[in-house]
Amino acid sequence: MKNKMLPKIRYLPFYAISALPMPVLYVLSDILFVVVYYLMKYRRNVVSDNIKNSFPQKPQITRRKIEKDFYRHFCDILVESIKTLTISKRSAMKRLRLENPDLVEHYLSEKKNILLYTAHQGNWEWLIFLPLFFPYRSNTFYKPIKNHYINGLFKIIRERFGVHCIESTKGYRTIIDLERKNVIMMNCIIGDQSPVRINAKHWCHFLNRETAFFVGAEKLAKKTGEVVLFPSFKKIRRGYYGLRFSLITDNPVSMRTNGIIEDYAGALENAILKSPGLWLWSHRRWKLSA
What we know:
Blueprint: H1 2-10, H2 12-18, H3 22-39, H4 44-54, H5 60-83, H6 89-95, E1 96-98, H7 101-109, E2 114-118, E3 137-142, H8 148-159, E4 163-167, H9 168-180, E5 185-190, E6 201-206, E7 209-214, H10 216-224, E8 227-237, E9 240-249, H11 259-274
Helix pairs in contact: 3-5, 4-5
């Protein structure tokens, strides 16, 4: 009991905020938007340049609307993530609506492992609710945050409903070990970060530019034979999201080289074009040039 109480004591301010009703949290989000967008101007130049280069044909007034929509959504994600500390299972399942869970259930019933090749789109943090819908082991790969206090907070949030957080450097070895034990599982990899120069990468035409993508997800899928699905979000209304799974491949070994990456990039681009304000535009996504 003492060990279980320690995290709550350490992160007491966040638990206190999390206990607030959602309408109050969204008032805080509105205030945070004003601070982040108008006062701090957090990465305003990065966001503006990313949107301008991705949608050069759109008028400035439309690009500015996308920019503001993103910042409002970003602030919502922050308070929604904190709410995860105390949200009930019933409320979580009500707020995340799966549009086609049968696709996932089909492959898991056939004892086929699934690779969720996801992105910073919609409320990606709420993918941690998936163990509430599917009674299978769920793993997510992550890169530790340098701030140990914040890293510990997000680990508590992400593991609350049964997700196993695995450091990216240990991901491949962990998955292989679990497969040898015949564990049926879903593995989540976020694929829209910008690789560093020393990483292996593949270039795709994405959002009007040549863009580098990690190749690790494809290598893992081809090695393990996992079914590759792309989960995309839509925002039904504030605090409610629809999640739809799209099949990239259920036979990765037969896919052309880099085909999984290219199909993922295409699926992600389509999701962004439908709801541009739901993607993480503050990421320095195009640090590398072809």
